[in-house]
Automatic annotation (TrEMBL):
Residues 5-59 form the HTH lacI-type domain. SMART domains: HTH_LACI. InterPro entries: HTH_LacI, Lambda_DNA-bd_dom_sf, Peripla_BP/Lac1_sug-bd_dom, Peripla_BP_I. GO terms for molecular function: DNA-binding transcription factor activity; transcription cis-regulatory region binding. This is HTH-type transcriptional regulator DegA. It comes from the Bacteria. CDD domains: HTH_LacI (cd01392), PBP1_LacI_sugar_binding-like (cd06267). Gene3D superfamilies: 3.40.50.2300, lambda repressor-like DNA-binding domains. Keywords: DNA-binding, Transcription, Transcription regulation.
Length: 338
């Protein structure tokens, strides 16, 4: 049987008015329980499905939130997406997912698609952390938007991990262990995110260390293979680095693989620190020291804020910017320099 979306079809079959059917399907106490059961049974037999589009036009809400990711293969973003869906579902909201694939044009297409589908609000990881104008324009137009990265100008709501602080902790840890020549594997700055590099440089500056240009490698991607290639390039430069900070764990794990297969001992010959603290980092053959990406805290804050903005969409409050201080998780990939 085909899908039925009209209440009057159920009313004709049940012998009740459309209004009675509508109230019964919404479990109104105004309708006797026996009548409600009868109407619901007929609705199921007719394969009735509510017309959510029509309902949303009447209510002026769809009870959906759009989530923009930069990549669906990033383990941390996948974990955030999972937590966002669970959190919103508990509040009666659905989640629409889309990836920009780090392409600004695709990001704009995703935004346009979300608006066409009349989402009530948007959570977003932007392609370029330094260019958030399109998201500021959305908010100025009345769309509840919460960024999952920091907005340095404060023009749009954000709940974000304090990436400079996390990177500074990672490098300060290596410095405290006696390392002075510390490499950086950073595929993010070319995509507009300079925050982790800023933390790396800040830690070195506080220790009175001036980094050499050859210490910094742009792997161009965030994959295991990119990390493996990047460490190979860094070692080929013969810079004498004794430690490496990678801006995510996938790069760090790829680098660790290359180091071990090249005959280096971790951490005796090379110490490595990552960022995100994904499960693979904890369970690696040589467990990886990493900066914890506080997924639950991030999702709790961002999802709650976007629902607050949705509730006040007619008069959005001033933007709030919340930064979460990440913890350093020390494991076997770092130890005092001999």
């Amino acid at each position: 049987m085909g899908m039925v979306t009209r209440l009057k079809d159920i009313a004709a079959k049940a012998g009740f008015s459309v209004n009675t059917v509508s109230l019964a399907l919404r479990d109104s106490p105004r309708i006797p329980e026996e009548t409600r059961t009868t109407i619901k049974t007929i609705a199921r037999n007719l394969n009735y499905t509510p017309n959510e589009v029509a309902k949303s036009l009447v209510a002026r809400e769809t009870r959906t939130v759009g989530l923009i990711l930069t990549s669906v293969t990033n383990p941390v973003l996948a974990q955030v997406a999972h937590q966002v869906e669970r959190w919103l579902s508990q509040k009666g909201y659905g989640t629409l997912f889309a990836s920009s694939n780090n392409d600004p044009d695709e990001e704009q297409r995703v935004i346009d698609m979300f608006r066409a589908r009349r989402v009530d609000g948007i959570l977003a990881y932007p392609c370029n952390h330094q260019d958030l104008e399109r998201f500021r324009q959305l908010r100025a137009g009345g769309m509840p938007v919460v960024m999952l990265v920091d907005d340095p100008e404060g023009g749009v709501d954000s709940v974000a991990i304090d990436e400079p602080a996390g990177a500074e902790k990672a490098v300060a840890h290596l410095l405290a262990l006696g390392h002075r020549r510390i490499g950086l594997l950073d595929a993010a700055s070319s995509k507009g995110n300079i925050k982790k590099r800023a933390g790396y440089l800040a830690a070195l500056a506080k220790a009175g260390v001036t980094p050499e240009p050859d210490w910094i490698i742009d792997p161009r991607e965030h994959s295991l293979e990119a990390g493996r290639r990047a460490l190979g390039e860094l070692l080929a430069r013969k810079t004498g680095v004794t430690a490496v900070f990678a801006v995510n764990d996938m790069l760090a794990l790829g680098a660790a693989h290359h180091a071990v297969t090249s005959g280096l001992r971790l951490p005796e010959d090379l110490a490595i620190v990552g960022f995100d603290n994904i499960d693979f980092a904890r369970l690696a053959m040589i467990p990886l020291t990493s900066i914890q990406y506080e997924v639950e805290q991030l999702v709790d804050g961002a999802a709650a804020r976007v629902l607050e903005l949705i509730a006040r969409a007619a008069d959005l409050p001033p933007p709030q910017n919340v930064q979460i201080d990440p913890a350093l998780m020390v494991r076997a990939s770092t130890q005092p320099k001999p």
